[in-house]
Amino acid sequence: MFANTSNQPFLISLGFPQSSTALIWIIAPFCGAFVQPYFGMLGDQSRNPRGRRRPFMLGGAVAVSISLLCFGFSLAIVRGTLSMLASNISELQTQRLVMANAVLWFCVLNVALQPLQVESRAFIVEACAADEQVIVHAWASRMQGMSSIAGYFLASMPLPEIAFFGALPQFSTLCLLASLLLLAAVFISCYFTHEEAPQFLLPVDFNDSSLSTKFKHLIAGIQKMPKPIRKICLVQCFAWMACFPFLAYYTTYIAGIYERESNLRRGISQKPDDSRHQPAISPNPAALRFASFAGLLLALVAFTATCVLPFIASLLHSSSHLRNTQRGIPIRILTQHQISRPQL
Q1: Cα angle at 235 between 342 and 227, to 5 degrees?
Q2: Is the N or C terminus of the chain more exposed, i.e. has fewer CB atoms within 10 Å?
Q3: Terminal-to-terminal C-alpha distance of the chain
Q4: CA 204, 209, 211 angle in degrees (round to 5)?
Q5: Can you give the C-alpha Rg of the chain in angstroms?
Q6: Interatomic CA distance for residues 180 and 171, integer angstroms
Q7: Mean model confidence pLDDT for the chain
């Protein structure tokens, strides 16, 4: 997530106008809506003796790591390639090549994320018993929260000033660390978790591997989806409509507020101008680190919620707790209202 929220300042630093970055961000939800179900169906139909999920997870992790590094080092890759070819082109043409290279690897990154995400979720469901699903998903949310905290903490630090990382830019260093940690985490999960042989689980008619047949299966599955699950999908859709713009733009928003406040303290006034179609000015590193610190606070709140809310929910849904403790006013209020889980 910390690399996701740092993409916007990075794209601006490459010379993208503010309006163009919104078009680039469309790639991520588009791949999530159309590419991820396809890879999920491929995993369901797989007869690989090494497992249905692990090959996709490992392949996706390698692809994500490579594309993330190429995206984070777009400027260095283009300039290094041009210097090797001894090409004498203008600075404007070089900038356009850098922008095109960044968009290309951003597309590859979002496609590579889909098999890793969908197969990892299915891997958790299939590797654990039915009575362990709630506990497993709760711990998966907590691990995700801890990784977000660590990531935002690294993003809030001046990594280029640390001798270990040398003179690498901040975003490039974050991409390098994220790639190494991702490969290590996926390799450990695949190595130590047993997966049942898939040849005994799949029907025979899944052997048809044509693209049109797979999409027919996908459309049929959507049409036959139970209404409660369809409602959950709609809730998830609208939740992401609200959450995705926040994750994409809050870093530059907070960094802009930080810069304006800093300029006012120094007595520097800024004239408002309409620069929607002009190359935006990237916030300074101190402002971006301040915005990452805000993300760290957000991650801490989210992690606390993932630890506290399941405990509160277990208390609310415990009939013995409600029967034995009806003396307090909050408990009496909860007792008067029927609390039940939805039947899925």
Answers
A1: 55
A2: C
A3: 30
A4: 140
A5: 24
A6: 14
A7: 79
> What is the spatial distance between Cα 9 and Cα 285, in angstroms, rounded to a whole number?
10
Q: Compute the distance between CA of residue 13 and CA of residue 55 in angstroms, rounded to an integer.
A: 36
Amino acid making up residue 301: V
Burial of 95 (0-12, 13-18, 19+ CB in 10 A): middle
Residue appearing with tokens 């090959």: 55
- Closest by Cα among 228, 231, 205, 201 to 216: 205
String of b and e for 248-268 (b: at least 16 CB within 10 Å)? bbbbbebbeebbeeeeeeeee
Chain segment 89-119, per-residue pLDDT in tens: 888 888 899 999 999 999 999 999 999 999 9
Using DSSP's 3-state secondary structure scheme, residue 190 falls into helix
Query: If you ran DSSP here, which 8-state letter would residue 128 be given?
Result: S
The helix/strand/coil state of 124 is helix
Mean local confidence (pLDDT), 76-89 = 85
- Whole-angstrom Cα distance, residue 118 to residue 38? 10
This prediction's pTM: 0.79
* Biggest distance spanned by C-alpha atoms of the chain: 82
Q: 18 Cβ partners below 8 Å, 6+ apart?
A: 12, 275, 276, 280
CA distance 288 to 174: 13
CA–CA separation, 98 and 96 (whole Å):
5
Helix axes 2-13, 133-155, angle to 10 degrees: 40
The token duo for 190 is: 């695949």
* Residue 51 region by backbone torsions, left for phi larger than 0, else alpha for psi between -120 and 50, else beta: left
State CA 272 to chain mean position distance: 34
Cβ atoms of 295 and 255 within 8 Å: the answer is no
Residue with tokens 């040398």: 166
Q: How far apart are CA 3 and CA 260, in angstroms?
A: 24
How many whole angstroms from its chain centre is CA 312? Answer: 27
